[in-house]
Amino acid sequence: MKTPVRVAVTGAAGQIGYSLLFRIASGEMLGKDQPVILQMLELPLEKAQAALRGVMMELEDCAFPLLAGMVGTDDPEVAFKDADVALLVGAMPRGPGMERKDLLLKNAEIFTVQGRALNKVASRGVKVLVVGNPANTNAYIAMKSAPDLPAKNFTAMLRLDHNRALSQLAGKAGVAVGEVEKLVVWGNHSPTMYPDYRFATASGASIKDTINDADWNANVFIPTVAKRGAAIIEARGLSSAASAANAAICHVRDWLLGTNGKWVTMGIPSDGSYGIPEGVIFGFPVTAQNGEYSLVRDLPIDAFSQKAIDKTLGELEEERAGVAHLL
Ligand SMILES: NC(=O)C1=CN([C@@H]2O[C@H](COP(=O)(O)OP(=O)(O)OC[C@H]3O[C@@H](n4cnc5c(N)ncnc54)[C@H](O)[C@@H]3O)[C@@H](O)[C@H]2O)C=CC1
Ligand SMILES: O=C([O-])CC(=O)C(=O)O
């Protein structure tokens, strides 16, 4: 039996938490032979704590063989104690008519507090995924609040955008979604993100050449992916939850277990590549192996792409300036 991995999940009684915890406990994130201990954080409010107790009862009732332990708490230092993986989901979601950056000042403080708690008590190699919006800037806040932990281990979720783009592309090109490779979504998890299909292939053939429609790319594909979150809110009255939980599972699974050379999109602190200033948490193409991700380097950036990348970077710089006083 392997040593259990400690997985902290914040906002555990929320929508995404409810779609996420059961899949982690069943082995979908870390492998079917990997025991896990779930360390779940909720707000110190009776309603949130009662909901968390209910979720924990349900987890118990599943009798998951891989669930080696559970902690439910309102204290970040308990939730993050020795955590190997931390999924920072707990934050306010947006409603109709809002942009994700409207949540910035409402949610920012959560990530200073949680960054500091991770810095103090988490495993020194903890791998952090920020889901709570605006995810890139919240990941930046958490990273800056945890100076003793490796900055590269603070990541933001762009995988939902990546998966949305995969499905749109496969549908348009008439190929199976599992065949599509070499896709990337650059930048911020916001409507300025840039889903880039220039390198994408299906069974080795260029998807861009198959589709051969620049108008579709600019006026259908990119806006459909970029505004998909709002479309879900419009349709459901609530933001994406099952697909967001699925993306979180994909992100962490690929990071820890590897991608076998396939590209995925992760929001990671820039090392200065592609002209993105060091430290900005930006959606980049990566591969992963042995628990470490590596940036896909030296891709050609044409004028259209440069303009899109500059736009999403500009927005991230603005968000960063907006939270500078907290750091
Ligand atoms: N990056 C991405 O692709 C996506 C991000 N999101 C974001 O994820 C976040 C969570 O979404 P939902 O689960 O739908 O929201 P929700 O409102 O259903 O659940 C959030 C939970 O977090 C808890 N919470 C709030 N502050 C907390 C704190 N300081 N510590 C611990 N728990 C706390 C709340 O009590 C609530 O139970 C939102 O910010 C949403 O916008 C949602 C979808 C995709
Ligand atoms: O759009 C939202 O507010 C929730 C989210 O991040 C998404 O679905 O991509």
From TrEMBL:
Q: Where is the Lactate/malate dehydrogenase C-terminal domain?
A: 159-320
Residues bound to substrate are: R94, R100, N133, R164
Give a GO molecular function annotation for the protein.
Answer: L-malate dehydrogenase (NAD+) activity
GO biological process per UniProt:
malate metabolic process; tricarboxylic acid cycle
For this UniProt record, the keywords arranged alphabetically read as follows:
NAD, Oxidoreductase, Tricarboxylic acid cycle
* Reaction catalysis annotation: (S)-malate + NAD(+) = oxaloacetate + NADH + H(+)
Q: Which residues form the Lactate/malate dehydrogenase N-terminal domain?
A: 5-154
Top-rank lineage group of the source organism: Bacteria
- EC numbers listed for it are 1.1.1.37
Sites binding NAD(+) sit at G11, A12, A13, G14, Q15, I16, G17, N107, Q114, V131, G132, N133
Metal-binding keyword on record: no
Q: Which residues form the active site?
A: H189 (proton acceptor)
Q: Which family does it belong to?
A: Belongs to the LDH/MDH superfamily. MDH type 2 family.
Q: Which PANTHER family match?
A: MALATE DEHYDROGENASE (PTHR23382)
Instruction: Explain the purpose of this protein.
Output: Catalyzes the reversible oxidation of malate to oxaloacetate.
Record-given protein name: Malate dehydrogenase
Question: Taxonomic lineage per UniProt?
Answer: Bacteria, Pseudomonadati, Pseudomonadota, Gammaproteobacteria, Lysobacterales
What is this protein's gene name?
Answer: mdh
